[in-house]
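Summary for the steering committee. The consortium agreed at its last meeting that each partner would contribute one worked example illustrating the joint modelling workflow. Our contribution is presented below. We chose a case with several input lines so that the handling of multiple components could be demonstrated. No manual editing was applied between input and output; the record is shown as generated.
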Amino acid sequence: MKNTVVIGAQWGDEGKAKITDLLAEKADMIIRYQGGCNAGHTVVHNGETYKLHIVPSGILYDNKICFIANGTVILPEVFEQETKELKERGVDLSKLKISPLATITMPYHTEVDGWAEDTVKKGKIGSTRKGIGPTYTDKIARCALKVGDLFDEETLLEKIDIILPLKNKILKQVYGLKEYSKDEILELCKKYKAIFEPYICENWQDLLRENKKKNILFEGAQGVMLDVDFGTYPFVTSSNPISGGACTGSGYGPAMIDEVIGVSKAYVTRVGEGPFVTELNDEIGDKIREIGHEFGTTTGRPRRCGWFDAVIAKYAVLVGGLTSMALTKIDVFDDFDEIKICTAYKDTKNGKIYNNYPTDVFIHDRLEPIYETHKGWKQSLSDVKRYQDLPKEAKDYLKRLEEIFEIPISIISVGPDREQTILMKNF
Ligand code: IMP
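What follows is the complete predicted structure of the assembly.
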C-alpha cells in the first residue's frame, strides 16, 4: 500500500470510517491527525458495529500501530469511555499511542462551546458542543495544555500559573461562567494523567522515524467543506480536514504522501448550521434521510440531506488535493426514478452562474442549484461486487461523476459491510 490520506470531500459523515477500515488492513500505522471527539466514525468490522470518536479505526485489527497525533484535540472523558468500551469488547489497545503534543479539551472549553450554542442567535455554528472551537482557539492563542504537560509536574504548575488567571478572567468577564481554582485544575490534570498514561508516546519521534518506510494511513475527520481555511467559513470546524492537515497534524512532510482519497456520498448531508445549496426540504430529502439512516453519530441530530453537489466536489478535488474519489451509499438511490447532480449555481439576484464554488457564503441563500437529471437504475446494488455487474444507468451516473471530478473513482460502496464494496484498483 502507498501512504494514503483519506479525507471527507463534503461536510463530514461521508462514510470515511468504512474506507479507512478497508485500507487499514494493508497499513502498518494509522494516524488520526486533526479534529477530536466531534467526529463519529461508524465502522462495521467482522460483522460488529463500532462507533469511534477519537481512536483511529485501525484499532479493530490486531498489530496495527494507531497514533493519535499532535494535530488532534482530546476530550479526556470521551477518550476514557471509548477505550473502556473497546477493552470490554476485547479490542487490544496495546498499539494505541498518543502524541504528547495533542491538545487537551478542558471542561471550560466545552462550557464555552455550550455557551456559544445557547446564547448566540445570529451566526450560530451548530457545533457538536465538544469544546472543539475553544480548544483550538487556545492552542493557537498559545494557552492550551498539551497531553505531555500532564507528565511533568513542574511544567504543569508553571503552565497553569500562566494560563489560569487569563482563562478565569475571560470565563468570568466575557462569558459569565464559573472560574476554576488551581486545585481544581490540578485535580483534573491528575485524573487526565491516569487516563492517558497507558498510551502516551514519549518516543513519538522514533515512532515516526521507524515507520517512515512502512505503510501509513492518515485518517481524516470531518470534511473539506468544514475546513477552517477552505470550508463554508464561519460555519466550519476549527481544524484542517483537507489533506494538507495530515502533514501539520502528524509530523510527516508532504513528500511522505502518495495518495489522497476523498470520500463523497452519492448525495450530500450536513449537520449543524450553514449554507447548503442543494439541500432538499421536501419528501425527497426525507426519503434520502430515511433510507440512508442520516442521523449524527456524535449528537444524534437528523442530518440535512440534498442532491449531489458537483460544484463542491470539484472544489474538494482541488483544495483537498485528491488523487481519487471513493463514492459511498450509492445504493440509497436503488429505488429512485431520477437522480440529480448539481453542476452549477445560479444567483437569483443577478442571474450570475457559478461553476466554481463561491467562497462568500453569505450570498449562498440566494443561490439556486442547476441540475442535470439521470435515470435511476431501479434495482438493488447491495450485492454487486464487480463494476461490470452494475446496471447501465449506475455506470452512466458514475462515469458522469468521474468526468466532473477529473480524477478516477477508486472505490464504490454499495452498503455498510466491508463486502459491499467495489474496488476499482488494487490498493
Ligand atoms: P465543531 O467541530 O463541534 O466545532 O462543529 C462545527 C461544525 O462542524 C458543526 O456544523 C458540526 O455539526 C460540524 N461537525 C463537526 N464534526 C463533524 C463530523 O464529524 N461530521 C459532520 N459534521 C461535523
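The chain has eleven helices and 19 strands. The longest strand covers residues 338-347.
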